[in-house]
Amino acid sequence: MKFRPFLACTALLSLAPLAAAAPAADPAARIANVVRTPGLVAFWDFVQREPAGARRFTAHVPAGAANTYALEAANYVHDYWGEGRTASYDDFPLLGRGPFGQAIRIRAETDATFRPFLFVPRSRLHDSPLDIKGPGRSVTVVVWAIRESGNHALAGIWHEGTDLKQDSTAGIRKIERGQRQYALFAGLNKEGAACGHVSENGASSFLNRYALHKSNSAGASPKVPADAPATVLDASWQCFAMTFDHTRAELTGWLNGEAGDRWQENPQADRLITSAANAWLQGRLHREPGLQPGEDPAFPKDQFYNPPETTPVAVKVLEETAAERTELREYGYTKVKVTLRRDAAGVWQETGRTLAALRLNPWWYPHALYAPPDAQSGGPFTIGRVIHSSRGVGFTGWIGGVAVFDRALSAAELRTLAAP
Q: Topology of 17-259+364-418 in CATH?
């Protein structure tokens, strides 16, 4: 689905040169549409600011809420490595137009010591409505953006940690473990997709060094130069979203209100998904009596990955002889190649089971969201980038709005938010 153009009015903030060509439509109705959506926790439109003082961007919040989650600017390389300069709002150029009247630019910084982002410090969000965590909690993150390049973070509570042993962490001054909860990315392993990412422990998954519970929308956003003509930019806004529905144990990526079905065939061959495939295998082998060939008895049981495989939704016979048959059984979140042999009574008995595919959208996630025990153990809410050890440039382009909800929005609601 191609996202139809947003029309924007002249913003009240300082305008970029493109503002003169901006259409005159009033974005107030679009703002109201987001604000009245049930479950809203915070919505930054990059128009609303503090009335005085630093004039930081603030969020629309529910009536009666005291915390408006004012955004600070920082350069995490400076904060963690002691390198480079500090960041300020001047490092986020304004477009003067956008879905809600304004947008900030995340640039392809050429200075390796400069990785700026906007953030709400943990000290100002811990145990607030934005700190969505623990059992029985669902979440939705929506970001309206134009992607120039990259596949990394758009927004969320996703401090990846600076404790990984790699070349980029040499000389680091501030080492912290991962403090991941929930976040929306611009694709990660599927560049340009809407990628939801969640964590149950703040750290890694399946004995991999990275967190791997993530979903990827079927659709992918195009690359659009950030300095493209105004008419091109107006037609290029994409609505990225992720939902985690704890009642269904499902994590889903959505692009322009559409999720779509995405599978990773032959997951053992994928550089990262192979860890999830092994977690599936270890869980299956563990359920068999005795130590099985290929079983790792030290594999942590809480890291097994075994989505429900009771009744298949589809069965395809791949090969069959009088004595043996091979089937491809599709379940809700896995495709499994099953080998059967006919016993002496003529009954088919299962003799082998191999993982053929893992479903990436939606992704089965049976855990609660990571719940940091205190503010010192939790990460900030960041926009544009996350704190991480690789110091990559990440996503670049325009961000015109960020919204967080404390429930999983429906497909109809996401389509409404994606509409012009």
A: Jelly Rolls (2.60.120)
